Amino acid sequence: MNRILYDFDIYPKVFLGDREQTVNIQPLGAQASFTEGKSYTIKVLKVNQSIPSVYPERSGRSILEAIPDEDGYIRFTAFFEGEGEHYIFIFENPEDKKPKYQLSVYSLNEDMEGKLPFRGDLHIHTSRSDGKEAPAVVAANYRGHGYDFFTISDHRRFYPSLEAIEAFGDITDFKIVQGEEIHLPMNHVHYVNFGSTFSINALVTPNDNQEKGDDLKYRSINGEAPDVMTREEFEAMIIERAKTVDRPYESERRSFAVLEWTYEQVQKGGGLGIFPHPYWLCPTMQLAEDYTEYVYKKAPFDAFEVLGGENIFSHNGFQTGLYYEMREKGFDPPIVGSTDSHGSTEHNRNALICSTIVFAEKNDTRELIDAIKSKYSVAVDTISAEYRIVGDFRLMKYACFLMENYFPLHDLACKAEGYYMNRYIAGDKRAEAILRAMKGQIAEMQEKYFSL
Fold first, then answer.
1. Omega into 283 within 30° of 0, i.e. cis?
2. Which of 55, 259, 385, 441 would you call most buried, defined as having the most Cβ atoms within 10 angstroms of its Cβ?
3. How far is CA 263 from the centre of its chain?
């Protein structure tokens, strides 16, 4: 975490631009306290307007004086131009060449009004398929890692996500979204269902989702789902649909017909269909490159998993290259970043390599899906300490600000909550009361830091 965040709290950190905004700076301890009655010089510089001494004609700059209030805070009001990061320099004396302190705030364009940042993962596995920990444990661990939402997308199984949702009920604000990784006959392309109200795997019988039987309780969140079909009925339907697919190979025609049908079912359930990891090596690429491009162009999905699953450049790097190259060709799908994690602790080196930041009005399944579909999301690569952001350039810049100035504080609060979620499922009698006391802390933090 940036050293300055240990000494000062500054809020709001984010607000709409092209207007005046009052900013509060609170010292966090005697080591950072302002001198009572002393006048401090405040310089506000918009980062993208470059160096004032070299380019004096540029805008986005303010100079003012501020005296600490009785509570020790410095408060000032300035005009913040447009969208972007603004440095707040605090000088002890007007003649000083270097500031005593440097902090940052960010102003946004009008289209970001009401949109808050939520970080999550849309592709994770548990011990109910080929992961290491039980669904409730995985949920607790990812809350502890600083996530606002996630889904369990176990292979061929929908009910593990329902198990995690049921485990915590209403004692936490961590949003656990129902989901699954879909594997249907006649198709090798993996597919992630995020948020559909029913299981797509369970629509073809027999299938691995039926370990708990055909009970709608285990394949739907509301007791409603389309009628199931036998494998034979499904294959006959796909063979017929495949006749209209313009691919040279029958295997790809059938595969794509399955993808189209799968996407239709995800849409019926109100979910987000995700095309994941085409550059996954198993041991060769999962898909031929020209077939990947065909799927990408035809888009039987809502979002492309531009980052996810591996820590080698020929996986995430190539998927990122594909994303930007296809944008140049006019194909610009929404994107997400996910770990495809099979272990939720530090003992899995891939447990925290990717995530998604979604800019939505609420941490709610429908709001998250709508925001992603509207391209208000970026993918975050945290394979190394030097993270990188993939997505729209303006959102990339904003996400970098958040990674430095907001999420470190957010994650400290989440870490404690994740610990007590684990204690709760372990039977600690104090944990529920502690979790209920913590509930709402992230919403309060967002209300403080985001004036949108």
1. yes
2. 259
3. 22
Collapse the DSSP code of 191 into the 3-class scheme (helix H, G, I; strand E, B; otherwise coil) and give the result.
strand
**128, 164, 334, 347 from 160: Cα distances, Å:** 6, 6, 26, 22
Torsion, Cα 250 253 257 260, to 10 degrees, reads 160
End-to-end CA distance of the chain: 25
**Residue recorded with tokens 């499904």:** 234
Q: Dihedrals φ, ψ of 111, to 5°?
A: -65, -15
Tokens of 168: 């915590």
Sequence letter at residue 4: I
Give the Cα separation of 97 and 105 in Å (integer).
22
Residue 109 identity (one-letter amino acid): N
> What does pTM read for this prediction?
0.96
pLDDT tens per residue, range 344-393: 999 998 999 999 999 999 999 999 999 999 999 999 999 988 999 999 99
- Which range among 50-59, 340-349, 431-440 has the greatest average pLDDT? 431-440
CA distance 32 to 7: 6
Could you tell me if 341 and 305 are in contact, meaning their C-beta atoms sit under 8 angstroms apart? no
Parallel, antiparallel, or unpaired: how do β-strands 450-451 and 14-16 relate?
parallel
Cα dihedral across residues 252, 257, 262, 264: positive or negative: positive
Tallying the residues shown for the chain, one arrives at 452
Q: Are strands 229-230 and 204-205 parallel, antiparallel or unpaired?
A: parallel
Q: Given the structure tokens 């594909």, which residue do they identify?
A: 322
DSSP class per residue in 337-386: EE--BS--STTSTTTTSEEEEEEESSSSHHHHHHHHHTT-EEEEE-SSSS
